[in-house]
Design brief:
Blueprint: E1 3-9, E2 12-17, E3 20-24, H1 34-37, E4 56-58, H2 69-78, E5 81-85, H3 86-94, E6 98-102, E7 107-110, E8 113-119, E9 129-135, E10 138-143, E11 163-167, E12 172-173, E13 177-178, H4 183-193, E14 197-201, E15 209-211, E16 216-217, H5 221-237, E17 250-252
Parallel strand pairs: 3-4, 4-5, 5-6, 10-11, 11-14
Antiparallel strand pairs: 1-2, 1-17, 2-3, 7-8, 8-9, 9-10, 12-13, 15-16
Length: 253
Protein backbone atom coordinates (compact mmCIF):
# COMPACT_ATOMS: atom_id res chain seq x y z
CA UNK A 1 0.00 0.00 0.00
CA UNK A 2 1.33 3.43 -0.92
CA UNK A 3 1.77 6.34 1.46
CA UNK A 4 0.86 9.76 0.04
CA UNK A 5 2.65 12.77 1.50
CA UNK A 6 1.53 16.34 0.79
CA UNK A 7 3.63 19.29 1.89
CA UNK A 8 1.58 22.13 3.36
CA UNK A 9 4.56 24.28 4.30
CA UNK A 10 7.11 24.71 7.11
CA UNK A 11 6.85 21.47 9.16
CA UNK A 12 3.26 20.66 8.18
CA UNK A 13 2.64 17.56 6.10
CA UNK A 14 -0.59 15.68 5.40
CA UNK A 15 0.07 11.95 5.26
CA UNK A 16 -2.39 9.38 3.92
CA UNK A 17 -1.51 5.73 4.42
CA UNK A 18 -4.53 3.52 3.73
CA UNK A 19 -7.24 4.48 6.26
CA UNK A 20 -4.73 6.39 8.39
CA UNK A 21 -4.59 10.17 7.97
CA UNK A 22 -1.91 12.14 9.80
CA UNK A 23 -0.89 15.77 10.15
CA UNK A 24 2.49 16.92 11.41
CA UNK A 25 2.99 20.26 13.18
CA UNK A 26 -0.02 21.88 11.47
CA UNK A 27 0.39 25.61 10.87
CA UNK A 28 -2.13 27.35 8.64
CA UNK A 29 -2.09 30.99 9.77
CA UNK A 30 -1.16 33.74 7.35
CA UNK A 31 -1.98 36.82 9.42
CA UNK A 32 -2.33 38.07 12.97
CA UNK A 33 0.50 38.55 15.50
CA UNK A 34 2.23 35.42 14.23
CA UNK A 35 2.82 37.04 10.87
CA UNK A 36 5.20 39.47 12.55
CA UNK A 37 7.11 36.89 14.59
CA UNK A 38 7.05 34.13 11.96
CA UNK A 39 6.55 35.73 8.53
CA UNK A 40 5.80 33.14 5.87
CA UNK A 41 7.91 32.84 2.74
CA UNK A 42 4.80 31.70 0.85
CA UNK A 43 1.20 30.79 1.77
CA UNK A 44 0.32 27.31 3.05
CA UNK A 45 -0.66 24.91 0.29
CA UNK A 46 -3.82 23.83 2.12
CA UNK A 47 -6.17 25.53 4.53
CA UNK A 48 -7.44 23.69 7.59
CA UNK A 49 -10.94 23.66 6.06
CA UNK A 50 -9.69 21.68 3.06
CA UNK A 51 -8.74 18.74 5.27
CA UNK A 52 -11.72 16.51 6.03
CA UNK A 53 -10.02 13.55 7.69
CA UNK A 54 -7.26 13.56 10.28
CA UNK A 55 -7.10 10.71 12.76
CA UNK A 56 -3.71 11.59 14.22
CA UNK A 57 -1.64 14.72 14.70
CA UNK A 58 2.07 14.46 15.48
CA UNK A 59 2.96 17.68 17.30
CA UNK A 60 6.55 18.32 18.35
CA UNK A 61 5.83 21.48 20.36
CA UNK A 62 3.52 24.46 20.51
CA UNK A 63 5.31 27.31 18.79
CA UNK A 64 3.38 29.63 16.53
CA UNK A 65 4.89 28.20 13.32
CA UNK A 66 3.98 24.64 14.38
CA UNK A 67 0.46 24.98 15.82
CA UNK A 68 -2.33 27.53 15.66
CA UNK A 69 -6.03 28.06 16.31
CA UNK A 70 -6.94 26.68 12.88
CA UNK A 71 -5.14 23.45 13.75
CA UNK A 72 -7.04 23.24 17.03
CA UNK A 73 -10.36 23.75 15.23
CA UNK A 74 -9.44 21.04 12.73
CA UNK A 75 -8.56 18.63 15.54
CA UNK A 76 -11.97 19.22 17.16
CA UNK A 77 -13.86 18.85 13.89
CA UNK A 78 -12.07 15.66 12.85
CA UNK A 79 -11.83 14.13 16.33
CA UNK A 80 -8.06 13.89 15.97
CA UNK A 81 -5.77 12.45 18.62
CA UNK A 82 -2.81 14.77 19.16
CA UNK A 83 0.39 13.02 20.26
CA UNK A 84 2.81 15.55 21.67
CA UNK A 85 5.01 16.54 24.60
CA UNK A 86 3.58 16.37 28.11
CA UNK A 87 3.32 20.12 28.67
CA UNK A 88 1.69 20.65 25.28
CA UNK A 89 -0.81 17.83 25.93
CA UNK A 90 -1.86 19.46 29.20
CA UNK A 91 -2.49 22.78 27.46
CA UNK A 92 -4.46 21.16 24.65
CA UNK A 93 -6.42 18.99 27.06
CA UNK A 94 -7.56 22.07 28.95
CA UNK A 95 -9.01 23.30 25.66
CA UNK A 96 -11.02 20.11 25.20
CA UNK A 97 -8.79 18.37 22.67
CA UNK A 98 -7.86 14.70 22.80
CA UNK A 99 -4.14 14.88 23.52
CA UNK A 100 -1.56 12.31 24.60
CA UNK A 101 1.58 13.58 26.33
CA UNK A 102 4.85 11.69 26.04
CA UNK A 103 8.25 12.08 27.64
CA UNK A 104 11.25 11.03 25.51
CA UNK A 105 11.39 7.24 25.38
CA UNK A 106 7.67 6.78 26.07
CA UNK A 107 5.26 5.34 23.50
CA UNK A 108 1.57 5.42 22.69
CA UNK A 109 -0.34 2.97 20.50
CA UNK A 110 -3.56 3.71 18.66
CA UNK A 111 -4.97 4.23 15.17
CA UNK A 112 -3.05 1.14 14.07
CA UNK A 113 0.38 2.64 14.84
CA UNK A 114 2.85 3.15 17.66
CA UNK A 115 4.30 6.60 18.26
CA UNK A 116 7.45 6.97 20.34
CA UNK A 117 8.82 10.26 21.64
CA UNK A 118 12.46 11.08 20.93
CA UNK A 119 14.47 13.70 22.81
CA UNK A 120 14.75 17.08 21.10
CA UNK A 121 17.10 19.91 22.04
CA UNK A 122 15.26 23.16 21.33
CA UNK A 123 16.32 25.89 23.78
CA UNK A 124 13.17 28.01 23.53
CA UNK A 125 10.94 24.97 24.12
CA UNK A 126 12.83 22.61 26.47
CA UNK A 127 10.06 19.98 26.47
CA UNK A 128 9.87 19.73 22.67
CA UNK A 129 10.12 16.21 21.27
CA UNK A 130 10.67 14.39 18.03
CA UNK A 131 8.41 11.49 17.10
CA UNK A 132 8.86 8.06 15.52
CA UNK A 133 5.73 6.50 14.02
CA UNK A 134 5.65 2.83 13.05
CA UNK A 135 3.18 0.03 12.53
CA UNK A 136 2.68 -3.27 10.72
CA UNK A 137 0.89 -1.64 7.78
CA UNK A 138 2.57 1.79 7.60
CA UNK A 139 5.95 3.23 6.70
CA UNK A 140 8.27 3.91 9.62
CA UNK A 141 9.09 7.59 9.92
CA UNK A 142 10.98 9.98 12.15
CA UNK A 143 9.69 13.53 12.47
CA UNK A 144 12.32 15.77 14.06
CA UNK A 145 10.27 18.84 14.88
CA UNK A 146 12.73 21.56 15.93
CA UNK A 147 15.92 20.18 17.42
CA UNK A 148 19.65 20.55 17.40
CA UNK A 149 21.54 17.45 16.37
CA UNK A 150 22.63 15.59 19.50
CA UNK A 151 24.12 12.18 20.39
CA UNK A 152 20.75 10.80 21.48
CA UNK A 153 19.63 10.80 17.86
CA UNK A 154 22.23 8.16 17.00
CA UNK A 155 19.78 5.52 18.24
CA UNK A 156 17.68 6.22 15.15
CA UNK A 157 20.33 4.45 13.08
CA UNK A 158 19.21 1.22 14.77
CA UNK A 159 15.69 1.64 13.38
CA UNK A 160 14.95 0.76 9.79
CA UNK A 161 13.57 4.19 8.94
CA UNK A 162 11.68 4.56 5.70
CA UNK A 163 11.45 8.34 6.07
CA UNK A 164 13.13 11.08 8.06
CA UNK A 165 11.50 14.51 8.09
CA UNK A 166 14.31 16.78 9.28
CA UNK A 167 14.42 20.48 10.13
CA UNK A 168 16.78 22.31 7.75
CA UNK A 169 16.56 25.93 8.92
CA UNK A 170 16.77 27.47 12.36
CA UNK A 171 17.07 30.70 14.30
CA UNK A 172 20.26 31.90 15.96
CA UNK A 173 20.30 33.89 19.20
CA UNK A 174 23.19 35.83 20.80
CA UNK A 175 23.37 33.78 24.00
CA UNK A 176 21.65 30.54 23.02
CA UNK A 177 23.18 30.02 19.59
CA UNK A 178 21.30 27.93 17.05
CA UNK A 179 17.91 26.68 18.21
CA UNK A 180 17.87 23.73 15.80
CA UNK A 181 19.40 22.32 12.64
CA UNK A 182 20.36 24.11 9.47
CA UNK A 183 20.81 22.21 6.20
CA UNK A 184 24.41 21.03 6.84
CA UNK A 185 23.45 19.71 10.29
CA UNK A 186 20.39 17.91 8.93
CA UNK A 187 22.38 16.41 6.06
CA UNK A 188 24.98 15.12 8.51
CA UNK A 189 22.25 13.57 10.66
CA UNK A 190 20.65 11.93 7.61
CA UNK A 191 24.03 10.42 6.73
CA UNK A 192 24.26 8.91 10.23
CA UNK A 193 20.74 7.55 10.70
CA UNK A 194 20.39 6.37 7.09
CA UNK A 195 16.67 6.65 6.32
CA UNK A 196 15.56 5.29 2.97
CA UNK A 197 14.48 8.85 2.18
CA UNK A 198 15.32 12.19 3.79
CA UNK A 199 12.57 14.81 3.43
CA UNK A 200 13.78 18.32 4.35
CA UNK A 201 11.31 20.59 6.13
CA UNK A 202 11.04 23.90 7.98
CA UNK A 203 12.06 26.26 5.18
CA UNK A 204 8.90 28.38 4.86
CA UNK A 205 9.62 31.07 7.46
CA UNK A 206 11.57 34.21 6.61
CA UNK A 207 14.61 35.07 8.70
CA UNK A 208 15.65 31.51 9.54
CA UNK A 209 19.11 30.26 8.59
CA UNK A 210 19.42 27.53 5.97
CA UNK A 211 23.22 27.64 6.38
CA UNK A 212 24.59 29.19 9.55
CA UNK A 213 28.25 29.13 8.52
CA UNK A 214 27.52 30.89 5.23
CA UNK A 215 25.01 33.24 6.87
CA UNK A 216 22.35 32.20 4.33
CA UNK A 217 18.93 33.34 5.52
CA UNK A 218 15.48 32.63 4.12
CA UNK A 219 14.46 35.88 2.43
CA UNK A 220 13.75 35.44 -1.27
CA UNK A 221 11.72 32.51 -2.62
CA UNK A 222 13.76 32.12 -5.81
CA UNK A 223 17.06 31.99 -3.90
CA UNK A 224 15.66 29.51 -1.39
CA UNK A 225 14.39 27.24 -4.18
CA UNK A 226 17.79 27.40 -5.88
CA UNK A 227 19.55 26.54 -2.61
CA UNK A 228 17.26 23.58 -1.98
CA UNK A 229 17.59 22.28 -5.54
CA UNK A 230 21.40 22.39 -5.45
CA UNK A 231 21.66 20.74 -2.02
CA UNK A 232 19.11 18.06 -2.92
CA UNK A 233 21.15 17.16 -6.00
CA UNK A 234 24.40 17.08 -3.99
CA UNK A 235 22.97 14.66 -1.44
CA UNK A 236 21.49 12.32 -4.03
CA UNK A 237 24.83 12.25 -5.87
CA UNK A 238 26.51 11.41 -2.55
CA UNK A 239 24.20 8.42 -2.08
CA UNK A 240 21.84 10.00 0.45
CA UNK A 241 18.32 9.78 -0.97
CA UNK A 242 16.71 13.19 -0.56
CA UNK A 243 13.46 14.67 -1.85
CA UNK A 244 12.50 18.29 -1.27
CA UNK A 245 8.73 18.74 -1.23
CA UNK A 246 7.76 22.34 -1.79
CA UNK A 247 4.35 23.46 -0.49
CA UNK A 248 1.65 21.83 -2.59
CA UNK A 249 3.84 19.02 -3.90
CA UNK A 250 2.96 15.40 -3.18
CA UNK A 251 4.93 12.19 -3.08
CA UNK A 252 3.63 8.63 -3.33
CA UNK A 253 5.83 6.00 -1.70
Amino acid sequence: MKMKITSIGQAAFYIEDGPLTVLTDPWFSTGGPGALLAPRLEPPALSADQINSCRLILLSHIHLDHWDDSAAALARRCGSTVVTAVDAARRLGRKGLTAVGLHPGESWSGCGVTVRAVKAVHPLSPQAIGLVMSGPAVKTLYFSGDTRDHPGLDELAEISLDLAFLQVSCARYPLLGADGMDWPAAAALAARIKPRLFIPMHFSCRGKYLDLEKNFKIKDLARVEEFLSVREKELNEAGIACRVLRPGETLDI
